Amino acid sequence: MTTKSAGKKPGLFSRIDQHVLRLLLVMAVWMVFMGLTRASRFYTLINFQTMASQFPEFGLMSLGVMLCMITGGIDLSPVGVANLVAILMALFLKQLVPPEGGLPVYAIPLVFVLGALIGACLGILNGLLVSKIRIPPILATLGMSELLTGVAIVITGGAAVSGLPVEYAMTVNNKIGGMLPVQLVIFGVMAFIVWFLLNRTTFGTKIYLLGTNPKAARFSGLKNDRLIISTYMISGITAALGGLVMLANYNSARANYGSVYVLQCILVVVLGGVSPTGGKGRISGVVLAIVLLRMLETGINRFPQISSYYISLIWGGVLLLVMVLDYFSAAGRPGKRRRQTL
Amino acid sequence: MADSLLRAVDIQKSFAGVHALKGVSLDIAPGEIHCLAGENGSGKSTLIKIISGVYQADGGHIEFDGKTLSKITPIDAILLGIQVIYQDFSVFPNLTVMENLALNSELSDKRKIVNWQRMRQIAEEAVAKINFKVDLDALVGTLTVAQKQMVAICRALMFNARLIIMDEPTTALTRKEVQALFGVILQLKAQGISTLFVSHKLNEVFEISERFTILRNGELVVTGHTRDLDSAKFSYYMTGREFSDEQFRAENLGEAPLIEVKNLGLSGAFEDISFQLRGGEILGITGLLDSGRSELSLALFGIREADSGDILIKGKKTRINTPQAAIGAGIGLVPEDRLSEGLFLPRSIADNLIIAEIDRLANRFKVFDHRKRTREVQRLVEEFAIATPNPQNACQTLSGGNQQRVVLAKWLACNLDVLVLNGPTVGVDIGSKHDIHRILQGLAREGMGIIIISDDLPEVIRNCSRVIVLKSGRIVQEMDAAFATEQAILSQMM
Amino acid sequence: MQNNLKKLTKRNETYIALVVLALCLLIEVRSGQFFTANNLVDIASAMVVPGLFAVGTFMVIVSGGIDVSFPALASLTSYATTKMLLDAGYTGGMWLPILISLAMGALLGAFNGVFIGLLGLPAMIVTLGSSSVFKGVMQGALGSVQLAVIPPGMRAFGTSALFTATNPVSGLTSRMPVGFLALIAVLLIAFFIMRYTFFGRGIYAIGGNETSAHRAGFNTKRTKFLLYVFVGMVASLAGLIRTCMMQQNHPTNMLGMEMNIIAGVVLGGTAISGGAGSLTGCMLGTLLIVIVENSMILIGIPTIWKSVFVGALIIIGTGVSAYQVTRAHRIKSSRRLGGEVKA
Q1: For B211-232, how does the pLDDT look when each residue is reduced to its tens digit (9 = 90+)?
Q2: Is the confidence at residue A230, as pLDDT, over 80?
Q3: How many CA atoms lie within 13 A of C338 on its CB side?
Q4: E strand intervals along chain C
Q5: B-interface mutation test, from C212, C226, C270, C342, most B Cβ less than 10 A away
Q6: In b/e form, how buried is each residue of B315-354, taking b as 16+ CB within 10 angstroms?
Q7: Which of 249-288 (C) contact B at CB < 8 A?
Q8: Smallest CA–CA separation between B113 and chain C, in Å?
Q9: Residue C212 contacts B where some CB pair is shorter than 8 Å
Q10: How far is C-alpha B29 from the chain's CA centre?
Q11: Is residue C323 predicted with pLDDT exceeding 70?
Q12: Binding partners of B (≥3 Cβ pairs within 8 A)
């Protein structure tokens, strides 16, 4: 009596992640609901633009957190990195303004490149702490977050850095052709890069395997340390970009902006189907989760009787709902559920 | 019969359409040492779980002490005196020995408040039963595997055990520890306690058990007295096949050695190891668990770097300090614990197959050549006869034997010169064992150099052309396999 | 005596105690102000709320989980209690606010307990979700605003003192708040639970190996459920005491504390993976963070550098501990082979 391998016929739905399907379902339900009750207000261009406008900030950070979680770790420092980079680049931008005002044409791209570089270095630091010194990622990135926020506070004296040349915010907040926000393009490009890395390069396959079984990865010749450092480096870059977008949105930089994003990123990533123990997760899920949550938020806004503070409740509620659904669908299958330490 | 302690009669059990047990019977007398053997998937685990109340049988019944039992829960089984010691011993590494021993009984007494003196007393009584000397305040996580097992046995004895069931108890034990375990089992026998020993290791069946039962495909094949058994009959009963084991003879040896090791040493593990390996040879390295043989395999593969001596690959001094360096030098390692160290079970079979050569399937920018990758997966699946309808399925959907093939295929896809295997058939059923040996002998004949590190002496003698014996980290003997006998090797090992 | 000394050196708590002591001495040497009565009382006062949170967090981490919802839980219950009593014009003693808080804390803790205990879902993710839910309820349903006035009973509790310590040099006085007694009480209860009840040993067992715990006879589902109920109650109490001590209820200023509390517990030797740790260590670790956060000013480091130091402390502390673990592993595997160890 050997356990026969359950041959799965490659049907349409077995290719698509079960979890992603569930998200699509919730989204479809919501869209129908909004169509029935508030169609005129919800399905408007302006509303979609609003939805698109605010999520690039933390959407970018989520991309990095997602990669770290796939390797079986986590990144709690994106906000710390984002704020520090934003502050440094704000100060730098102000230096670039020539006496007659305005900004040289190379200024904004330069700021983005420099910012990304700083983010990369900070990410590499995280990666070193996790891979070489073997500090559990949750604690290493927590410490870094605190440290970086502290440095940001010291640099700014706790105040906001403002008085930026208006060209910066204008450019980053610009809408291409009047419709497509530049921020969204930045997010889209990074999302595509991450998708490409995960699905079309050896890096992607390697980190999925690393997250699944680090020991076997080592025995298969994978360079675990280097993979981890690269992953956290990318997370640092996405966090830095998120910070630069935040800089444009608030037209200022401060050490404590966006502190709520840390847990929100993790929430959205888990909602998107990434397992905190590593080895699983698709970018389609994460993007979908972000879109779904923004849809829920803007939809709620269309009901003036319901306070927009309910957003928090909805975030948490949807996460718990999806987890319970996952649990009950897995319960039918034989085999023990893995005990998770997070 | 009033003579029996436990009688399982005609047990039937099915799971979701899979017929696991098809009318199996088992008979154990009081104080008897009985071995239950069978390949993976023969139904022996299911039978154990039914006896201990974890599963309920669909048909048949269990008699204990002459009384027929209807439905038993695990608690019922414990109260009857049936104790199971699982392979992981179910201990708490973060708690002290004392707590590990006393917890079960305190809990079954429904205690709420902890009385540390009483727990210590309970623990002291428990270890006294088999004279186990241990520091009660030590954390179990710091004990050796053998000591943890003793803790599990002591705990099992606390509930007036009549029958102790041990699931593959000798897997991680050194030879001395196995002897100690057998000594304990004999002590139990003297106290009238029966032992049901699940194992597929032939020598253990012979050494300790009085009677045996062999299952195959959910059916009872044979039950009888060990004195009526020999190894050929054992193989036949286990697999239903007759095996003619060919002694490997090295042919077409390569001119120059593929790998030469000179005075290799790793402090705390081994020292002054020197040997050569030419293409076409299978070298066997054997020794006790603490002889340094495992560490040697890790050093050859770069998981742990040797701190003295040299490794020469095709005559050139090469530094093997990481697995990548080893692979680059043409060396691969099939690790001992294939499942946790060699495979990524939830990932696809395809991923598992190509992972060691993954960089070759991508271009300079690390982007995959999709067609190349698909073709390679297809080739490997066919060449190694991996039974799956779709290589994108998770590796855990494969049977055990097929999983072994994946591990081998992964390395053979890399065009290596030397393949080191650490315990290649540990935990493998007899059928797959012979298959693996056949594959390895074939590989050697094609010009590869193979190193088998194992303490399964028949395996080593039959499949190797040369044997090196390690003891306490040093080479004590090197011999041609044709002249090697088990006794000769054993006497050198100990 | 020799044996006891050896046992002491093996324990994590000893090292952390030494570090705390060293820090205190450093501050004392630089400022002469550390071991003054009023400073010590200030520190004790600053320990009350983090200490209470740390006890709950400690128990959860030992069980193998991580709880990030306790600040939100505490904010919600303290806000709801305060508002409810204000609206009702309550003028009585402290016992009613405490009771209401504990009841609400138990309820919210049970919410966590259902998902983590009964359904067995991973604690960190569940508490992420419940943290959002609690925040949403507080801000959305209850429309939280800062409450500058709190019921007189609570005000009295917040200002009443066990005793007052005066600094002879500067003339500054510090009150030892009555809330400190609550911390002591909870510590004693938690100590008793963890050391002398099977419920507590079960928490350690679950953190060590949940399957074995189940096989040994622990009711793992019920244990985890009750654990979160208890933690909810303690967190609630902490929130209430904070409101009293601050004399007002600010709905969001506790949010964000979770990470530093977890850091403090881990610095005290509690393994993040569960199954190991002591209350002593947990308090020492929290004390270390509280001292760094509060007393750096005494050696002339402006408070603006606080986060930098806390962050560095976390990295160095966990780094040292991680290094020790790797070293211990290497020694253990070499020893098993009977070889000499070249550390």
Answers
A1: 989 888 788 888 888 888 877 7
A2: yes
A3: 9
A4: 161-166, 173-177
A5: C212
A6: eeebebebbebbbebbbbbbbbbbbebbbbbbbbbbbbbb
A7: 275-276
A8: 4
A9: yes
A10: 28
A11: yes
A12: A, C
- Rounded-to-integer distance, Cα C332 and Cα C343, Å: 11
Beta strand spans in chain A (E): 175-176, 180-181
Class of domain B257-493: alpha beta
> Which of C66, C130, C314 has the CB atom closest to A316's CB atom?
C130
User: How many beta-carbon pairs below 8 A join chains A and B?
Assistant: 109
Fold of A52-326: ABC transporter involved in vitamin B12 uptake, BtuC (1.10.3470)
- Domain hosting C247: range is 2-304
Residue C231 belongs to a domain: yes
Q: Which chain A residues in 143-182 lie under 8 Å from chain C, judged by CB atoms?
A: 143-151, 153-154, 157-158
Q: Which of C173, C186, C154 is nearest to C41 (CA)?
A: C173
What's the complex ipTM? 0.83
Average pLDDT across chain B, whole number = 86
Q: Is residue C269 part of a domain?
A: yes
CB-CB contact of C268 with C16 (8 Å)? yes
| CA nearest neighbour of C113 among C73, C75, C76 | C73
Q: At what angle do helices A78-96 and A107-131 cross, to 10 degrees?
A: 150
Are the beta carbons of B368 and A201 separated by less than 8 Å? Answer: yes
* Distance between C332 CA and the closest CA of chain B, angstroms: 8
Of how many residues is chain C composed? 343
For chain B, the structural domain boundaries read 6-239, 257-493
Q: What is the pLDDT of residues B393-423, one digit of tens each?
A: 888 888 777 888 898 899 888 889 999 998 8
| CATH number of the domain enclosing C256 | 1.10.3470
Fold matches, B6-239 and B257-493: yes
d(CA B403, CA B385): 11
- Residue from A201, A207, A199 nearest A283 by CA: A199
Domain count, chain C: 1
Report pLDDT for C338: 38
Q: Where are the alpha helices (DSSP H) in B289-429?
A: 293-301, 323-328, 349-354, 370-383, 400-412
Q: Does A188 touch chain C (CB under 8 A)?
A: no
Structure tokens at A146: 């605190």
| C7 touches B139 (CB < 8 A) | no
Closest approach of C316 to chain B, Cα-based (Å): 25
Q: Decide if C205 and B292 are in contact by the 8 Å CB cutoff.
A: no
CA nearest neighbour of A156 among A55, A86, A97, A224: A86
Q: What is the mean pLDDT of chain C?
A: 85
Nearest to A216 among B344, B359, B365 (CB): B344
| Beta-bridge partners for B276 | B260
Q: Is B287 on the interface with C (CB under 8 A)?
A: no
Q: Closest Cα of chain B to A93: distance in Å?
A: 34
The domain spans of chain A are 52-326
Of B436, C232, B59, C111, which Cα lies nearest the Cα of A316?
C111
Q: Classify the C-alpha dihedral A146-A152-A158-A163 as positive or negative.
A: negative
Instruction: List for chain C the helix, strand, coil content (%; round to 5).
Output: 75, 5, 20
Does A276 lie at the interface with C, CB-CB under 8 angstroms? yes
Query: What does the alpha-carbon distance between residue A281 and residue A67 come to, in Å, rounded to a whole number?
Result: 9
pLDDT number for residue A225: 94
Query: Which among B340, B343, B393 has the least Cβ separation from residue A8?
Result: B393
Q: For the domain made up of B6-239, give the CATH fold.
A: Rossmann fold (3.40.50)
Chain C residues whose beta carbon lies within 8 Å of the beta carbon of residue B74: 215
Q: Residue A9 and residue B389: Cβ atoms within 8 Å?
A: yes
Residues constituting chain A: 342
Helix H or strand E segment including C99: helix C95-113
